[in-house]
Each structure stands twice: as C-alpha cells, then as structure tokens.
Design goal:
Strands 1-2 form a two-stranded antiparallel sheet. The protein contains nine helices and two strands; from the N terminus they run αββαααααααα. A hairpin with a 2-residue loop joins β1 and β2 (29-33). It has 241 residues and is mainly alpha-helical. It starts with 9 loop residues before the first helix and ends in a 7-residue tail after the last helix. Helices cover 59% and strands 4% of the residues. α5 (117-147) packs across α8 (207-228) and α7 packs antiparallel against α8.
Length: 241
C-alpha cells in the first residue's frame, strides 16, 4: 500500500513489513498488507495499492485476466527502449498504445492539463493572470508617462529619438518585473508547500518553472512598456506641452 495515501496515517502504514503485516477489509474481503511504498495522491486517486493478479481478480470478479489495462515490460539492457517499442509496434496489432514510462507520464500530464476540468481551469487562470498583469503594468507606466509629458517633450524637441524613450520605459518595466517577481516567488513557494501538506499532491516549484515565469514576467512588462510609449512615438513635440 502507498503510505502517502491521502487520509491514512503515514507513520502507521510505513511500519508495515512482511514480518508484521496489517490485515484490513477491502471490498468485503480480508486483505493482508505485506509492505508499503512511496507513491502519493493525484488528481485521479487518493493513493495506490499493488497486488497480484489473483488478488485483484478476487477483489474485482467482473474483470477478466485476459483483458489487462497495462502490461509492463522491462528490458535487460542489451537493447534500447526505443528499439523494443519499434519492434512491438511492428509485431502487435493496431489499437494498442506502446510507449515508454516517460512517454506515458508525458501523455498523462498532457491529458490532465489540456482535457481535464482542473487543468483547463488552472490554464485559464494563468491566461487571465497574464492579461491582468499586463493591464496593471500598462496603467502604471502610462500614468508615469502622462505625468512627465513635458519632460519627454523637451527631450524629444532636443532630438532624442523613440529608442531613447523606449529605453526609459523598458527600464521601468524591468524594475517593476523584478520587484514584483521576488515577493511573488516567495509567496508562491509557501503556497506550494501548504497545498502539498493539505492535499498530498506532489507540488514542486522547480527551477525551470521559476525561470519560465520570470522570463514571462519580463516579456509581459516589456510589452506593457511598448504599448505605454505609443503616445510619445506619434505625438509632435509642440503638442506635448
């Protein structure tokens, strides 16, 4: 049994060993738990159990031993996994999904992200967060540009080009991105840990995710800065006073 199953006492389950099994009732039948492993809950299940085919058929008599959902093959190391997959696809009939463990994990993650309601809701929240962030940063930079129109007009009359003003606004946008990202990173790390404790889900804020979010934040703020400088680019210096 998975000792990280949601709702179970992990310390009690972790003590299960072949020499000290635990008998429980499952599907109105007595089952002896002989060991434990670290799995963890997910969106599809609170935890996992591993059992023999005979025990499985005893607990679920409606299932057939000739119709398994998955068959796990282990290679001996003399051939690559890709070569085994290619041979199996050429030998077995069509309709069977033959893939490596990594491919199966990627497919499941893609399914949870793009087809399951939870993934769609989170994805929609990310899109809305980006849009709201762009609008807020645009409002800040646009207000700052409006407050300093006379200064910008003087510089433009002196011959400074659009690239100079873009540089000023982009610098402000980068400062906003960095100053906003650091506390958000710390708050997100705390929320990840809190969700991991409350739900049992393997929530991990990886370095790749942190870097991707930071680059996305810089891009969004830069886009807001470019939009905020449109008025300066198209206006005549005399009209800015």
């Amino acid at each position: 049994i998975d000792y990280a199953t949601r709702g179970l006492d992990p310390d009690r389950i972790a003590q299960i060993r072949p020499q000290s099994p635990l008998e429980v009732e499952l599907s109105d039948q007595r089952v002896r738990l002989a060991n434990s492993f670290a799995g963890g809950a997910g969106f599809a299940a609170d935890g996992y159990m591993v059992m023999s085919d005979q025990t499985f058929l005893r607990l679920f008599p409606a299932r057939s031993s000739g119709a398994p959902d998955h068959i796990l093959l282990k290679t001996d190391g003399t051939v690559s996994v890709e070569e085994v997959i290619t041979r199996l696809r050429a030998t077995l009939p069509e309709g069977l999904r033959i893939r490596s463990v990594d491919q199966a994990a990627d497919d499941d993650q893609r399914y949870q992200t793009t087809e399951r309601p939870t993934g769609l809701i989170f994805g929609f929240g990310v899109v809305m967060g980006v849009i709201v962030g762009i609008v807020i940063v645009y409002q800040i930079l646009s207000t700052d540009v409006a407050d300093h129109l006379s200064e910008y007009a003087t510089l433009k009359a002196m011959g400074y080009g659009s690239s100079f003003f873009l540089g000023i606004v982009f610098e402000q946008a980068i400062v906003l991105a960095v100053m906003g990202f650091v506390p958000s990173w710390l708050i997100s790390a705390g929320l990840y840990e809190l969700l991991r404790i409350l739900t049992g889900l393997p929530m991990q804020l990886t370095p790749e995710t942190i870097i991707a979010v930071f680059l996305g934040t810089l891009a969004a703020c830069t886009l807001s800065g470019a939009i905020a400088t449109r008025r300066l680019n198209s206006a005549d210096p005399a009209d800015l006073f």
